[in-house]
Amino acid sequence: xxYVRAVDEDKLExxxxxxxxxxxxxxxxxxVVLGDKLGLYRxxxxxxxxxxxxxxxxxxxxxxxxxxxxxAQAAGGYVTLDAQDGDDPNRYxxxxxxxxxxxxxxxxxxxxxxxxxxxxxxxxxxxxxxAFRSGAGIGWHExxxxxxxxxxxFFRPGYLANLVDAWLPALDGAIERLSSGAKxxxxxxxxxxxxxxxxxxxxxxxxxxxxxxxESVAAARKLAADAGLGGRATFEVAGAQDFPGTGYDLLCYxxxxxxxxxxxxxxxxxxxxxxxxxxxxxxxxAAGDTVAxxxxxxxxxxxxxxxxxxxxxxxxxDVGAALGAQAGEARLRVxxxxxxxxxxxxxxxxxVNMVLELRP
Length: 360
What we know:
The chain has about 350 residues and is an alpha/beta fold. It contains 13 helices and nine strands.
């Protein structure tokens, strides 16, 4: 194939080098999931150097496979290769930082959920290709089941780190209400991690998590029972425009409004369900208001997720607004105003999320 435009060979070489680096990351991604599921990382968390035979013995796996896995992980910087003398077998260890990111699911630095999501997206590629051709949507419930657990694992560390200590205090009067006893709904709750974090912190309040996805609600109910929080947190199968109840002091939407087909209708129902002086906490991915504003690693990540997951989910529903995961504050403000909210402000933010406070 010939090109009319001249090719800068240095730029071409640099771009191909970038792609090779990224292909290596893509090829290694399933191995991260494998290391998580088989307990390979956890077996190295003490930081002691291990051979492939040592790690295989600790985890009940085959030494030859583990040997190749360790080499691949070390080449990618996910484990560390120790310098060796002579013909001794190679030894590897986890640095403390690697251990946190790859084993500590209470840390906001934990990356495991993201790799699980990536695996789910890969398995759904044929369906996504057909959606590109037809313009049809793909419902959340139609995705690979690992997407549900991966999404829960991806967002939970952020909730543990920020929800009680930073996000709720940023909402005017929220902590006082929750401490004295508030009625709260967590809409689009998924596995309910956000609901349970709040229920654990505020025993005087009562929480209900709602989601249309039955399997996620079942998982949330189990997590609540296992945590002994069933008396404070309940979970119901319901949609964003028909969940029951009124007089809510706080309604929460964690990283889900942009997935909804009719976000205006969802927030209009929220306004009707709120107490007169109630609060809506809208947590959305961090984003600027233009594509140019989002030309950064976070924007890249969320645009990719939006292409594969969020936009198809919205297009599968009535209205199909397809806000996308990088909708931005200005677009979300328009949605809130169309739903009848007169108060709207950015309460706080992290590198990954923005927290918006809506008032009737």
